[in-house]
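Deliverable D4.2, example record:
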Amino acid sequence: PQPAVGAGATAAFVAPTPASRARSFTFAGVAPADQQAVLQAVDAARPEARRLIDAIAGLVTVRVASAGPTSAGTTQATPAGYELVLDLGLVNRTLGRRGIDRLVLHELGHVVEFALVPEATLDALDKGVPRGYGCDDGRLGACAGREERFAESFAKWASGDIGVDLSIGYKVLPPVMPLETWAEPLTRLALPAEAP
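Output generated by the structure prediction step:
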């Protein structure tokens, strides 16, 4: 991802408003079949993850294009929200439906992090994710940054798929505890607000 500054839900990032919560994704020049592929990944997410995604969907513009020579997707903070660029063609050809689900949920995990998750919660979640092995290209495995560890772990939790034999992402190991236990702070964030 390429956030404007810092990481986590801070003033540097756009947070959901009542108006944005009433909207869904904006697809910029995206073919109907590609829109459906993105929506299928979201629909397949566990309900708690889906509630978090629904909270940020109105802030997200999705484009389908090449994300660069070393990425299948990117997330960029913008003044109005977040832009996701997804290389669905490449991922579909190489990894199929499972790869598309991981890509979409990973990139949406960045938006959930930036827009919703407080810094202290991010720190607590990160402590449950092992640093891994190796340091490929200075950014994978043990060298993956906190934002990538979060997005990878979010995608694993949201899909229930820890990624065995799935060669996409940052080589982040699954959390050291069951996914449901790791994600308890996210589940609490996903609870509907109590009426006053």
